[in-house]
Amino acid sequence: MKRRTCRKCGRRRYLKFFAKNKGSKDGHIHTCKDCHRKYTQKHYERNKLVYKERAASWYHENHEVAKAAKLKAARRFREKHPEKARASSRAYKKANPQKCAEYENRRRARKMHTQVEPVDRREIYERDNGCCHLCGNPVTFRAMELDHVIPLSRGGTHTKNNLKVAHAICNRRKWANIA
Asked: Among the four residues 32, 83, 128, 151, which has the most C-beta atoms within 10 Å?
């Protein structure tokens, strides 16, 4: 097997320890992979700001491509590791029940082809003074649900005017009736 001497460290090593380079006579770079790795790490540390700016400008110019690549990578991960993806999804839903409920309400409203607007849960809670509109008793922000006064299934909208604070049990009891 052929050997060569590294120009940086001076060690004589087999060619498999040298990276390939088509421009070189023998097709390999003149420094071993270890020395080359150290050099590139030092170079990156010295020029970190330049690299970050270059990456940021590329991302700004190609954000659609980057977004598509990120989505594709996430899809591949979910296909390759379905258990990890499910566990991550479950953990997120457990940690963010309000966000998940809001997402589900918006999805249902879009599915019904009705009006949908961004809703601030805190704003509605403060507007209703933290009281359930069905039973009149106070409800904590964490335990509250947003009730559609005119249900989505009956042609109601997902807007601030059609949403009121309710206890979970009161909201379930009301079901799809108009309050």
From this structure: 32
